[in-house]
Design a protein that fits this description.
The complex is a heterotrimer of chains A (276), B (290) and C (440). Chain A has 276 residues and is an all-alpha fold. In chain A, helix 3 packs across helix 13, helix 4 packs parallel to helix 7 and helix 10 packs across helix 14. Chain A has 2 domains: 50 residues, no CATH class; 169 residues, MetI-like (MetI-like fold, Orthogonal Bundle), CATH 1.10.3720.10. Helices cover 47% and strands 13% of the residues of chain C. The longest helix of chain C is centred in the N-terminal third of the chain and has 26 residues. The chains are: A mainly alpha (276), B mainly alpha (290), C alpha+beta (440). Chains A and B meet through helix 1, helix 4, helix 5, helix 6 and helix 7 of A and helix 1, helix 3, helix 4, helix 5 and helix 6 of B.
Chain lengths: 276, 290, 440
Amino acid sequence: MVNKRKKAASYVLMALITVLVVFPFVWMLVLSFKTNSEIMSSPLSLPKALSFDNYKNAMKTLDFPRLYGNTFFVCIISLAAELVITFLSSFVLARMEFKNERLRKMLYGFLIMGLSISPFILLFPVYKINVFFGLRGKLALIFPYIATSISFNTLLLVGYLKSLPAEIDEAAVIDGCNIWDLMIRVILPMTKPVIATVVIFNVLYIWNEFPFASVMLRDVSDYTLSMGASFFKGTYTVDYGGIVASSVMIIIPELIFYGIFQKNIVEGMTAGAVKG
Amino acid sequence: MHWLSKKKYKIGLMIPTLLVYSIFIMLPIVIAVRYSFTKYSGIGQAKFTGFKNYVRLFQDKIFWISLKNTMIMFVMAFVLLLTLSFLIALLLNKRLKAVDFSKALIFSPAIIAPIIVGIIWVYILDPNIGIINNLLDAVGADALKAKWIGGEKWSPYSIAIIYFWQQLGYLVTIFIAGLKMIPGDVLEAVKIDGASAVQEVRYVIIPMMRTTISTVAVLIITGVFKIFEIVQQTTGGGPNHLSETLVTYSYSMTFSSSDYGYGMSLATVTFLLSLMITAVYTAVTKEREG
Amino acid sequence: MRNRNFKRLLSAVMAGVMTLGILTGCSGGSEEAKTDESGATVIKFGIHVANPAEQEVVTYNIVEAFNKANEGKYKVEFEAADTETHSKNMKLKAEDGSLPQIFWIEGSEASEYSEAGVLLDLSEFLNENGNVKEALGGMEEAFVDDNGQFGLPYQCNVQGIFYNKELFDNAKVDYPTDETTYDEFIEMIGKLKESGVIPLAIGSKNSAYAMWEFNEFLARYGWEGNIDNILSGKDKFNNKELTACFEKLEGLKDAGSFPENMATIEYFDAKQLFNEGKAAMFGTGQWDCAEFDKNIGDKIGFWWGPKFTDTQSSQEIVMKVPSAPIGVSAKVADDEKLKEGVYEFLKFYYGEEAAKLSYEGSIFPATSYDGAAASDSQYAMNAMIEALANGWASPKAAPDLTVSSAVQEALYDGIFGVLQGTYKPAEALDKIDAALANSQ
């Protein structure tokens, strides 16, 4: 009896928590079908009719293909570059011999340090550095995104690469592999699971990143999704319905992506944390 | 392996990472600190002013307000988020029907862009068009209505709640991952000994989860010092900077007021503060473990 | 063999880095003269609204007319962002040398740009175009310093309080007049509030600049006469006049004049409240006229603000002032063709045709030409013209534009602080004094 009651209580609690967490999303969806003045003057009411006007307005104001295009562009270039460079450097730190063990530790520590550096102190200086290199627009985002990923990637990749047995290298070398073959043909395929984690973590970061974007992007044509969301205000007379609808339109693909890769995403995001 | 570990390989393979990292992470910190000793309006030349910005900072009431707000969020997050996400993890770690579905839903806010999170919550907390005040109005509990955001009192608490909403699922999942690592037979043994649920948590689970708890704590610490978009969207730091956090205040001084020198001194202090708290926390937990 | 592979790897990495470099090289260079498909020289115009076709209709129309008249020769393109972003962008662009050829400058920051040497001296332009100078009639003098004519007024700003006559009628309140005093204003606010509308719409989030109606308050407490003494250190912001002025702001707060969520809404939201008939009054300038015509029509009224009785300063003051300036990037001088185009555009912008377009869109241009006037259905602008008919004097510049950006910021912060009850009047004024001391 006691057990049953306990179990029932657990279900009620679980349902309650879930509903509370999900409610804000549902409310956004409801609001997106209300007219602007309905949102302003009768916030509690349900929409009178299922009208897609807000979505039409949002599409008119925000150039969604462009926002997505820009976000993809920055995401893919940064991701490719950071994967290549951090794989190479992690390979050195995890699997190569150092005459001086302390040097290895120092290099590793140096690269890991970034985990505790808040990006906010970097914004203005990085802006200056971009100016120095003549990096503008979308391109100004790429290096900061690569740089901020280094610590996390190093942590995960070095940890994983170290766990692979040393015999692999030896066997490969005896088979006549050079360093290039060893890295790309032998080790890289074995690294797939951790690379998946790294990719997911980095894609989510870049997809949602706002502070760097708000400083580096100055032309609407360069805006990424998170900038697009903030752009809606003050662009027309305030169109609450439009703001809500455009937010929904940014959220939904994210939620679909999450729905499909849910397991990997959750694993990826927690693996990073637990390892640290 | 030995003959592959040539110096030039090592250097060649390390250099891209080291270069990008040094130029875009380490150098900026040096630049930020250097600017924090100057007066610079964004155009023209920066003027060296010594410690003037830091003197001003300690006399700046808004700096103390934003520090206070950050600390309120920090304490709120630390106490609420740590305990509640732990408890919810205990709940969701049970064998219940649809528990995976529930976990997935609770996790979902963590993948949404923080800027959208801010937008969503405006429609819940805004004193006029937000749902909370209107609900209170509808049920006749006018007296409970408050300026959840944009007033003088509640903004930092409200922002902590929003942050809580965003992070809850993520931290719960980390805790569950930690719980799964506790060997099943340990728990079995405890059960047979007739320990109560509270005792089980207190004497078995918590001690065995120390590393996970530390991880979550460090995540919360570094996370609180990154709360930015939520504040920007809900209150913009207002009214009169009263809901500013250290991060938003330094951003607004740097980019809205174009007081780059002062903004960088705020950023530097914030940076040192978060490093310090993390260091103290890790030192304390290490000591306790050791 | 091994070595070659390694080299291949390295060169792949290098190639990647270089491609990035080349990509960036191509994307830069907005400072050089660019031409579009038709071969027209492109002139960039940085503007302080995100959507000029709707928010700065007049400027948009003038640009369109110019582009049409100069098809294949010159083409003016906007670089648009909301005010706060625009200001940030222009600063950052001044830094990396990618300023648009022409751009709107936040009034209090113009002198900083000028000192940094990024602005073209427009004296030459004015000397070559005597008719423009004449039409400006001295409006341009607000933007002269040691570096010369660093900017020209974008428009002429007429600022005050718009009111919705219908809501006044509903509340059985008389419309305000030139003689309405502050006490009567407070009484009016009480009655409006009782009738269930927001008396005065205002939003403070990201909208510190949206305090136009209070410029009138400052001016009527002797701002123009005192400001030089304050800035030179002979007097303080925390003086008798301004304390009295800020106490009046506090009085407005105490009377419950503002929306409850003032801190979480922006200027745009506040305007929306007025447009939708939820607020009875809204302080702004002529740039919103067209919008009011559309939403409120002939129910609109315009008022300079209350008269104050506890000061010796003149109360017969209106607010018709040069707006923030537009400046020209100094780099334009390096390119003859571009410079010619910019001059052509300025000639057009300050010409008679543009002035007509301006009046049609309910905007007072910086220039005055005979025969340009508003039509009958431009209710909001006609209300302003009517108010201007009293012939009262106007200060040379709006009070908030007479101080440096740091002081301006403190002034805005102080005003909104008092309006929201976070500062006492004296406290707010001390803060402005502190900002002045800090900036020197």
